[in-house]
Task: structure prediction
Amino acid sequence: MSASPQSAAPAEPKPALRFRTGRSTNWSSIYDDVSESKETDRLTQILSGALTTRNLLVLTGSGASRAVGGPSMTDLWENCENLVGHTNVVKLVNHPREVGRKKDIEHLLSLCLFYLKLNDQTSGPGKVVKDYQELAEASISSLCRDFIKDGASLTPYHALLQKLVPRRNDWPRTKFFTTNYDLTLETSAEKLGMPFIDGFSFGFPRQFHGRWLDYDFVRRGKEKAGAEFLDGVFQLLKLHGSIDWEHDKTSNSVSRITSTNSPHLVYPRDEKFALSYEQPFLEMISRYQAALREPDTCLVVIGFGFNDHHLVQPIRTALLSNPSTFKVVIADYEIEKKLASETNCFASWKELAACQEAGADITFVEGSFSNFTSILPSFSDARKSDDLLLRLVKAFEPARQSASTADSSNV
Result:
């Protein structure tokens, strides 16, 4: 009589979130079907402690936009690959010049910028490259704009703003830094009725000037003198430009123009350092660096690849200069894969993991943008959790002191 085949073991459920913190390299898991668990409470407590710092910074990258339907770098390349002159331009600028950049549209556009600095743009090959660059910029602008128009769900962005923007009025505003060109943060803020300060004036056209970043929103009461800060306001600093920025070469000014087809952008990676010394990028980068140097600061990073050296280096510096008061929370959907990769582009991830293992206050959270914002506590919840912990410590303090006294008398 033949033996009956054994039934296959049920597959392990995939965790909704995984995290590692402290000096440990072990990952803890949180599952969809467990609304409350020891690991859920532990991660919530860690995030609560991070979010109750005086200075709260948020850095978002392309992974955050991809999570809500935005274009990937592959999407941008494939779209530009179909533009007139693409094949010719690739040959003219000798693309790619580095391994792993064959389908990197930002690398190609960087090479186009270099080529145009050395060649006449009004005729011949220079005009071919110039025309292609303008077409590519318009194409990128359209892709970054259309996915929001098509009804993309920005729920994770809404949750992020609702939880991280409301703060104590005597503390600095939450600062959102982003490398994304799209308008996900602006659209979400408008939907939620949240004013934001982005360095642009409130006239027409809305022109950039650094002094506007020092202004704020206040409410003047009718029955009492003075004013109070308006709730729910944040700062937005777009480190690499935006699809609604336009550069006027005549006046050398940058304005917010809703329907521009010539967006003012910085393309990683080769040209980025040079363009970062022009306005408004110089102002944005300077404030980014200054914010990271402040004591009692938490940086929440979402969907950022850590490939931009001029943005990664200030984080390294902050970890070294403020190790006891600088906290970092990094959320991404495939952190472990990046830490295990031998590819050079993930070297910064390994450096951060080494810092975490050495004792730096870094927490890695692996999972979707939506799941991360779901577990993220609001400021009021974080304060309640923090206050509860303090009350418990105070409650146990008399017993601890009594035990300490008893131990001393027995010596």
About this structure: Residues 379-409 form the longest helix (31 residues). The chain is about 45% helix and 15% strand. The radius of gyration is 25 Å.
